[in-house]
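the two lines:
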Amino acid sequence: MTRILDNVNRRDVLMGGAATALALGVAPRSFAQAAPKKGGRYRIGLSHANAADNHDPATWGTSAVINMGLYGATYNCLMETGPDNKLRGELAESAQSEDGKTWVFKLRRGVTFHNGKTVDADDVVASINHHRGPQSKSAAKAIVDAVTDIKADGKETVIVTLAAASADFPALMTDWHLVIGPAKEGKVDWEPAVGTGAYSLVSHERGVRMVLKRNPNYWKAGCGNFEDVELIHIGDIAARMNAISTGQVDTINRPDIKTLSLLQRNTSVSIDEATGTQHYTMPMFTDVAPFTDNNVRLAMKHAIDRKVLVQTILHGRGREGNDSPITPTNTYFADDVKPRAYDPDKAKFHLKQAGLATLKVDLSAADAAFTGAIDTAVLFKEHAAKAGIDVNVIREPNEGYWSNVWTKKPFVMCFWAGRPTEDWMFSQVYAKGARWNDTHWDHEKFNKLLLEARGELDQAKRRAMYREMQQIVSDEGGVIIPMFANFVSARSVKVARGQSIAANFDLDGWKCIERWWFA
Amino acid sequence: MSPLASMIVKRIGLGFVTLAVVSAVVFFAVYLLPGDLAEEILGQAATPETVANIRRELGLDRPPIERYVDWITGLLSGDFGRSLANGRPIAELAGMRLVNTLYLAGFAAAVSIPLSLTLGIVAALYREKLIDRSINVAALTAISLPEFFIAYILIFALTVKAGWLPSLATVSADTPLGERMFRSILPVLTLTLAVAAHVMRLTRAAIVNLLASPYIEMARLKGLKPWRVILRHALPNALAPIINVVVLNLAYLIVGVVVVEVVFAYPGLGQLMVDSVGKRDVPVVQATCLFFASTYIMLNLVADVATIAADPRLLHRR
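prediction for all of em together
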């Protein structure tokens, strides 16, 4: 049984009871009440860009100019996260699988690249293959590692075979590295940045600015409304705040949350906030003493005052974490796994259980992990002292933090952007032997559930499994997750947006250029 | 060969030696920093395989000495090379930024140097009077505040409150000159405040030093007007130190303004260098460092030659 549904998400399909077949389909639609107006030059001030920025999606990382300008506006992926935070097809019209192992993507017909070439299955195969294989230099290699084969079946169908069943595979195809470019003899030349997106690239001074112009043939209705777009790198946070408050740009990312209340007084600016998947973490090596004992880990988890951290580090723009990486944006978020209250007595109790009267640990911190990581570590030191835990905060250099400190030192500060699906998040960071398993955690029950849930197509069973896994991570995992940080951005009131904005990244999932318009 | 010419030749030769040393120091300093290009590009997403693949493809796994020799060989044949991070020719990445940097330095110098010389002369002329004191206080205040702080004050006053000037100085190749000048008024003002005090104080001191000399006394006794005494009699003899400080400030305006570039989002060479150090993009770091070093060497040479031209006695020191 196969159904093609309009505008549905994974949950709806699964709830439909089509246990042996999954189908996803979408139709383009406009997200606003009134039809968006066309025209205008849209200027965005962005926090990150670098002279080393590269058009090759395998290298995409922290450059907001690249991510917003290329992934968000110039290219499309097979699938996307809609402004309603639901999964939908982008260049793929539908994604179907009988067994979760072989996935058939039907491509949308008649979509053309900026150079006039029609999108066909070979383009998709070449674009995905760019990240695969032993020679891959791609930051997305881990995402496509599960793919054992990808091939074109005619011009409009792509068949992907996986090593093992995965009900979430279409969601992986929303990853921002996996954009589709035009193939020539099985390879894509990424340098000219020819895509299918709502905008085409006009000029790019790396680390400075990027200019885009509207693609008149764009296929999504109600999208691509600005005539021209200018993405300007404004690395200095005060400069960015000035630029938006004096109207020199129409939107900025990452405003200074410390002074956000002042900016809010400005009637020409409005603030957008979305609870996304990003979370701040403090991983402990569960195979290194003293963290080998779960009682020690529980003591640590009780010795941190999450409320205070959300108020001081996030200025209230976020929520307390419950030591599980699954956020309210995720489909199977278990809201009954509550954040632990700050309880020094309970922490002492757990220490006692572990046979310890006091505890001394080193915590490596740098603001490279996230803005305010050092402050968080120092606050934790204060909180933990009341529980008899002496936290020695070691300030590490920002340079090389991810290579030399994270996954190298036993207890560090860390950040995760989060993943749109439970399986993706768990299997990359919490599964036994996962490359980024920064706690060296190996929990038999958890690992077993992870595999079962991945191939489980029954929604209710899946929900129960993911609930249990969240409970296990929270109670026995090696990570303290004190807070989920909201995505915050600021926009001129002249710019309008749909009622709901995506929360997979900031600025409407990095797609405000495509989705927003001048009111 | 005249003594001046032989000095110039000698200094240019020494300059090349200095550049060679600078390039070696820079190369190995970047090498000593934690992390390399592969790790910086992949960040948290780095896996051992992908890092190894990038290193292999870019040759980062070769011994550093070998890479350095390769780079020097390329440079000697006139090839600055390409950015390791995105494969673009360095000439393309740095070209526009070099123009921007030279333009900003030129504009700032054109404003600040005549202004500070005039102020210095005026201060010397009216020394110990109210006007001298005011100039001194103002200049010392400006130089005591860090540049970024001056920049923020100017932005607050002239952009946020008054709304006269843009605080973003983003310019590109196709920005018309008028627009470019308008956009760079705030950075130029900031730089002017940063360098004016130095030049002004030195001009004043150099002139005041001479005012006690017998020949100035003589000029005054002849009944010359004070401004004529200073401009015609004192200034030419005070030129040597003034030229020195002016040229050193020029060098500063070219190589030392990265903080101002960041605050005003101005795309200059300084930001390119900081970006490239952050990503360990060694060829770009090398190229920008060599440019900055040669600027210093060249301008120092110019300063010395001009000083000697203004005061030939310096060539025959005992």
